[in-house]
Design brief:
The protein is mainly β. It has strands at 12-20, 25-32, 45-52.
Amino acid sequence: MARGHYHKTGNHYIRSSEWDPHFGKYIWQWYADHNGGNDGDDWDSYYGESYCNNALW
């Protein structure tokens, strides 16, 4: 679990990506999927970003 980040269920996923010309890489925007549990589907929260040489699928 990342520091300052918590979720009971679900997974992390990439919501979007964009090209960063300064670094010459794609920035992937990660979110935490807070689904399931007794209360159904909860709001997804921003998790962080990472750089990658490839675009999303």
